[in-house]
Amino acid sequence: MLVSTPAPTSAPVRVGIVVTDSYPAEDLDHDTAPVVAGLRARGIDAEATVWHDDTVDWSAYTLLVLRSPWDYPERYDEFLAWLTHVEQVTHVLNPPALVRWNLDKRYLAQLADLGVGVVPTTYRTSVDDVRADLAAFAADAHVVLKPTVSAGSRDTGLFRADDPRALDLAARIVGSGGVVMVQPEIPELSAGREKSLYLVDGEPSHAIAKGALLAPGGGLIGGVYQEHPEPVASTDDEDRFARGVLAAVQQATGLGMPLYARIDLVDSAEHGLVLLEAELFEPALNLHVAPAAVTDLVVSAIEHRTR
């Protein structure tokens, strides 16, 4: 008598949406809950997972999607070690190799070399070099200083070029082992005309304006990092620019199309369309102000990547 052997069953799909364990009231995660709910509605076992929770078995997940681990700058080495671990046991998006490249804003220089318009920037590892940069500006010109590794505008300041507080900030960044970015002020950026264009699997999904963030003289408007996202339309030129940025990212890294991307840009009278940041790691998607179809688009893209 022949005994039939049951056909092997595939492991159930399980998705972890990577977050942290607390957020300031002015900078909440509005994206994880609707994404988890959307995945569950499609029969996918999805949950939020805190990246530094030592009790989590990361190998149990089919896919990890980096969403809002926004405390990583304070735990930078720990985060890099976590990335190394999880990429060995499961699939992570966006991929850790892309995240590592994106963590240091010196990637902007690589993209500029590939023809992407960026804000003119120097990258300095000594206060003397920053002092020389500032001396090259007119005394009443305004400049922006920030570290190459940062999030939420940490240690970022807008100053007159002759303001001694600019050098104080530079000294703090260099003293902590960082690299200082020195940029001219872009007046349109200070006027709140920055746009963030989102792309899912390389295609534009929505855009927001978040208003100006930096207060003259250093620090943030209102004293805290708080975006005020408002849905806006993107132009055909801006969409082409954003797609071009992602094409340059792929050329620079040798990696495939990111699952998600946020391209921060501003249309400058002096420089034209320029890239402020290509956020390929943990951008707030601002789903709470986006059309409902955008959440479905994000969920569909994640579901497709589990196959």
Strand order of the largest sheet: 11-10-9-12-13
pLDDT averaged over residues: 91
CATH topology-level fold name of the largest domain? D-amino Acid Aminotransferase, Chain A, domain 1
Strand content range = 15-25%
CATH superfamily of the largest domain: ATP-grasp fold, B domain
The low-confidence parts are 1-9
Q: Radius of gyration, rounded?
A: 21 Å
Query: Tally the helices: what do you get?
Result: 9
- Tell me which CATH architecture of the largest domain applies here: 2-Layer Sandwich
For the record, give the distance between the C-alpha atoms at the N and C termini, rounded to a whole number. 38 Å
Q: Any idea what the shape is? A: globular
Question: Helicity, in percent?
Answer: 25-40%
Alpha-beta content class: alpha+beta
CATH class of the largest domain: Alpha Beta
Q: What pattern of helices and strands is seen along the backbone?
A: EHEEHEHHEHEEHEHEEEHEEH
Oligomer class: single chain
Q: How many structurally independent domains?
A: 3
Largest sheet: 5 strands, antiparallel
Number of strands: 13
Organism: Cellulomonas gilvus (strain ATCC 13127 / NRRL B-14078) (Cellvibrio gilvus)
Protein name: ATP-grasp domain-containing protein
